[in-house]
Amino acid sequence: MSRIIAGVAGGNPLTSVPGTATRPTTDRVKEALFSRLESLAVIDDARVLDLYAGSGALGVESASRGARSVDLVEFDAKASDACQRNADLVNQILGGKKVSVHRSKVESFLERATARDVWDLVFLDPPYPLDEPALSAVLAKLSPHLDEGAVVVVERSSRSAEPAWPEALECFADKKYGETKLWFAEPS
């Protein structure tokens, strides 16, 4: 069972997505990821975007640790319902609506984003079958919506190639955790 690891809502169990359509980020990877993000000082007061959110675990973890706002974007109905339950839990604990759920395809969500929609921290954990050109297209659509100093984290299989970064993004680190690999990028 996945849980919120730290922060105000730390220790609370998360609703998981029924079935096998998603790959939850393991607690081990989540702990390492958030340790890295805290060392980069990008969580506190951040505007967070969790694309292909699954259960929303990364986004709600960010809210628990002090993010200003979190947008969870998930198209699958069962996953979106899990996101909503997890968002409701964290919003209740935090005493306000910090986490919002958007049932939408990622591409459509980014196409509808306006110039005012800007994020400081973005998680992308797309389904493994999403090919590299499609991932690159999403990263290109995301780029204009990143604040200066933003961090983008892409989670893929450790067997996947490094994402093809658009000109506006530059990879500054990567880390492998068993079957999972994380890439960290920032605006160039």
UniProtKB/TrEMBL annotation:
Enzyme class label: transferase
GO molecular function annotations of the record: 16S rRNA (guanine(966)-N(2))-methyltransferase activity
EC number(s) per entry: 2.1.1.171
Keyword field: Methyltransferase, Transferase
NCBIfam families: 16S rRNA (guanine(966)-N(2))-methyltransferase RsmD
Stated name of the protein: 16S rRNA (Guanine(966)-N(2))-methyltransferase RsmD
Source taxonomy: Bacteria, Bacillati, Actinomycetota, Actinomycetes, Micrococcales
Gene name of the encoded protein: rsmD
